[in-house]
Design a protein that fits this description.
single chain, alpha/beta, 8-stranded parallel barrel, two-stranded antiparallel sheet, 13 helices, 10 strands, globular, binds coenzyme A, binds magnesium ion
């Protein structure tokens, strides 16, 4: 699972090298807002990207290129750089509904043919940056070819709404920003793609980033975008199941060992959705190969391999 997505302005070669050497699961090489508006800066960034993506030791599986918005003239120059360079995916800003994803998929397909690339470049759409984009989120109802994830962001939305702050005094998102976040999560689930949480721009505030990562992970987000390497460990730590969650999951599965219906645990009712959640927690923890899985639970870990997951039995 890709829990950490690190943005880096593509016009800064030293930072790009640092991002690629970091532990980020995915590196978003930015040709859009992080580079500024001047065409010559964008051109310089594309030159750097071409060089970096062309290097033998660049791990292109982790490379995503944030192109400019579909409405921008830059897009015709950005797409060839990403496709010819063999990036795994492109990140589309200011996405307004599934039609934009379909349009981008066509442009990518044409570029792949031109550059003799056989891989299908994936799409991560940032779908909450304009009021229109937020209003079109409910249109994401089905899987779309190439669409890997929906991401949300509150900075451009604040500008589009002519607001001055997207957070309240306690630091939590307010009003339309919280609504956009929730709509993005719902749309991602309806479309069957990853849901990536917005960046936390106060990058020196580690506690704040941790609080937000925990809160949004518990809402359902799969991952969080980062703007600074120092955020990566914090985010990763929050998006992997905690020892307490793993312990809880084992206890839930223990209660359902012989099958059966609704029962109780710690004074609350548990039934099938809790069993599914418990299985997902244990699967995620196994994938992450967490070293802090309680040793005493190794026997139970072996047991869950025999439990059927929803995708295996198709009944859940
Ligand atoms: N990727 C890779 N390296 C990064 C980085 C990033 N996103 N952000 C910071 N670094 C590097 C710095 O270059 C610096 O390296 P050095 O020690 O070799 O000089 C080191 O990490 C420490 O950086 P720091 O001094 O704490 O921050 P800064 O003032 O240099 O940079 C930002 C602050 C916000 C400008 C920078 O983090 C950044 O560019 N983030 C991404 C911005 C972006 O892409 N925005 C668009 C998407 S929202
Ligand atoms: Mg932006």
């Amino acid at each position: 699972m890709k829990h950490t997505w690190l943005f880096v302005p593509a016009d800064d070669e030293a930072k790009v090298a640092k991002a690629l050497a970091s532990s980020a699961d995915a590196v978003i090489l930015d040709l859009e807002d992080g580079v500024g508006e001047a065409p010559e800066r964008k051109a310089g960034a594309r030159r750097i990207l071409t060089r970096v993506l062309g290097q033998d030791d660049t791990d292109r599986r982790r490379c995503y290129v944030r192109i400019n918005a579909l409405a921008s003239d830059e897009i015709t120059l950005d797409i060839p750089v990403a496709v010819a360079g063999g990036a795994t995916g492109v990140v589309l800003p200011k996405c307004e509904g599934p039609q934009d994803v379909v349009r981008l998929a066509k442009l990518l397909s044409e570029a792949e043919q031109r550059h003799g690339r056989s891989n299908a470049t994936l799409i991560v759409a940032i779908a909450t940056e304009t009021a229109r984009g937020v209003q079109l989120l409910p249109k994401f109802q089905h899987a779309l070819p190439r669409l890997e994830a929906l991401m949300w962001g509150a900075e451009d939305l604040c500008s589009d709404l002519r607001g001055t702050s997207n957070r309240g005094p306690d630091g939590a998102y307010v009003g339309p920003y919280a609504a956009a976040r929730d709509a993005c999560l719902l749309a991602a689930r309806a479309a069957g793609v990853l849901a990536i949480d917005a960046v936390y721009i106060a990058f020196r505030d580690t506690e704040g980033c941790k609080r937000e990562s925990q809160a949004h992970k518990s809402l359902g987000f799969d991952a969080k975008a980062a703007i600074h390497p120092s955020q990566l460990d914090v985010i990763r730590g929050c998006f992997r199941p905690t020892p307490a969650q793993i312990e809880w999951a084992h206890r839930v599965l223990d209660r359902f060992e012989g099958g059966g219906g609704a029962t109780t645990l710690d004074g609350s009712m548990i039934d099938t959705p809790h069993v599914k959640l418990a299985r997902r927690i244990l699967e995620e923890s196994q994938k992450a190969s967490q070293p802090d899985v309680p040793a005493a639970r190794q026997g139970s870990n072996r047991r869950i391999r025999h439990l059927r997951t929803p995708s295996e039995d198709g009944t859940c």
